[in-house]
Structure formats: C-alpha cells, structure tokens
Amino acid sequence: MSNAIYNYLIRPIGKVNQFFLYKIKHPILYFLIITIGRYRREVITKNLKASFPELSGEEIKHIRKKFHHHIIDLLIEGYLMLVLSEKTLLRKYSFTNPELINRYYDEGKSVILVGGHYNNWEYLVVTINKQFKHLGSGIGKKISNRSFGKVMDKRRSRLGTQIWNANNVREKFKEQTENGEPFCCLILADQSVHNVERSFWMKFLNQDTPVLYGLEKLARKYNLPVVYYSCKKVKRGIYESKLELITENPTEEGDGDIVFRYNKMLERDINAAPEYWLWSHKRWKHSKKRPTGMTVREE
Length: 299
Description:
There is one protein chain. By secondary structure, the chain is of the alpha/beta class. It has a domain at about 85-290. The chain contains eleven helices and nine strands. The chain has a seven-stranded mixed beta sheet, with helices on both faces. The chain has a two-stranded antiparallel sheet with strand order 6-7. About 35% of the residues are buried.
C-alpha cells in the first residue's frame, strides 16, 4: 500500500506467532486502514457495482467487507513472506499439478505463467523459483519510493526469483533465451493499460476493457507455451493453485485468442469468489477512451 504503512504498522510487529498476527493484529490494522482510513472505498464500490450490476447494495457491501478483510490478511502475509522459511512458504502456497510445467523443462522449453492479482500472488512471486524445475522469474514495475522498492525486491527475490523490470522485459526474454536455461516467467496481466490504442479490447466483468497484449506478443515471438494458474484460498494463510494450459503453440493461435482465453479464465475465478480480487486497483480508468472503430470481443 505504502512505505509508511509497512514501516509503522507492519514492520513493528516483530517475529511473533501467526495467531497473534491474524487474531490480534488484523483487527487493529482493519480499524486503522479500513474503518478510519476508508482505504479506496469509492474505487472499490464503483468497480464492484459496474462488474456485478445485478447485485443489490447490501450484496455489494458484503463483498466489499470480505475484500477489506482479505487485503488486511495480505498485508500481514507480506510481512510473513519476508521472515518465513522456504519450507513453510511452500506449505502455504502449493500447486496440485506442477508436472504440467515441469515437463516443458524436460523438453528444454521455457514457459509463460499467467494469472491475476487474485488471492495471494506475492507468495507465488517469492516461491516460483522453488515451485518448478525452471528458473523462476516475475515481471515487476519499478516502485517510485526507492526505500520501499528495496524492501519489495528483498521480499520477492529471497528464494532466488529473478525480478525483471517491465520496462526492459523484451531484453530479458532475449537474454535468457540466448543463455539456454529454461525459465518460467510469471506475468500478472490484469492491471490497467497505458496505451488503449495498442491494447486488445474485450468484455471483462460486464465492461468494455482494454487488456494487456504484451504476453501474447512474447509468446508468439519465442513460441512459448502459455499456462494459466487458478488460485484458491484453502483456509486462512494457505493457498493452492491449479495449472491450466492456454496454448502450447502460440504461433498457431488467432490474433487475441491467448489474451482473451486468459482473461476469461480469470473472470471465471473472480465470479466464483469475487472478494479475493484486487478491487482497489483502478482497472477501468481508460475504458471510456476506446478508439473509434475498435471492436470489443465478447466470445
């Protein structure tokens, strides 16, 4: 959320047991950030209403409250990510079918793994280098606050994950491909786009939505399999993911097919349990800027 929240509310809790964090610290953080701070309440409410127009006001409030509790859990787990052992983190975040990706390593192929800001994506970022046989990497944006950025880099790379800056991801793909070591690159492609004219437009959560096209371009250029991961919250602090193949031969897919299928898989997961998606993000801030003549794919 911010460097101040981490330094003054999260970091001071020290190395204490998780019962204290979830049962004692959670209500305190909830009161300060949600009740008093009203964390992005207008953005969250607007996004929920637009995505689920069929729901009543009370149903929207119910989802919003559950999301608020989930986001506080994520803050706590962001701290735990920094201090828990590799063994514990791998118990907290696991895959039911890692062999789907591991077989590509055996074939000498790299993989693009796609998902969304749904459930706990940070646990996956920090453990991806240990989840599969591949070298694990993730694409991240540079954080403007330098000191907080260092904290995040330390969190995410402590188990060997390589963090590739979004501004030079093409160079990193080229470099790593030439190195010859198969890699599994995690891309969370559900954020707001910067260039609506170069985006792929589709219906997503009942709204005309420009979606990031870059992952499809990378997959086509290097002919890499694209795999989606579906994450569910088994219980508090424990997450389990299942892998689903989007395509094994991206060069044979129609234009936009890869990003369309990815977003439909994510939409399916959000509809099943909406409280776990990052509703506080301004996902549709550019939706009214659709270029004239740009079609919106629905099916």
